[in-house]
Amino acid sequence: MKKIALSLTILLGALSASNATAFDGDVNAGKEKSATCAACHGPDGNAPINIYPKIAGQHADYIYKQLTEFKLGMTSGGKSGRMDPVMSAMAMPLSDQDMKDLSAYFSSLNMSEGETPKDVVEVGAMLFKAGDAERGIPSCASCHGPRGNGSSLAKFPKISFQHPEYIKAQLEKFRDGSRENDLNGMMKDIAQKLTDKDIEVLSKYLGGLH
Length: 210
Known about the structure:
Keywords: Electron transport, Heme, Iron, Metal-binding, Periplasm, Signal, Transport. It is a single chain. The protein is an all-alpha fold. The chain has helices spanning about 1-15, 25-30, 40, 60-75, 85-90, 95-105, 120-130, 140-145, 165-175, 185-190, 195-205. Helix 7 crosses helix 11 (about 195-205) and helix 9 packs antiparallel against helix 11.
């Protein structure tokens, strides 16, 4: 919980800064460079296959962070950044400007809406909005916002409308330590306290969160 509290303090400091640096990616250039991305993420950034994330409407700063860390994962041999056999290889030939342009383009698109099964609404809403104090689980909304829109400044992703299957896979990776590129290990700490049922409910709940 100390790591989480420290991270939230850092976040509040960032959000209170007078001005954020403008993201200097070029949307039109990004569109021209996006053909390869469409194979997995779809031509409009709404991945047709649910194991791949929707990146349309995602924060440009967050997309850029992930691309740079996928590349770092490959160049460091998995010792730093985020290692993925597909995305790390895809990010390797990208220049810094390529990554900024692609991030700007996909963030300019609209993420398609999803649905939340009725049987997970009550439990999912409680866990997302309030967490579980007895188990030391903070609310997801404290970082990702009440509507799951995240924060560009803090590089917390938009998680509403995301494919439940993808969210489930990422929470499991944070839990088992195979993904470690989160701020101060915050997601890892939280995910380790989540049961399989918690992860299933949250993933389905977020799929249709407005």
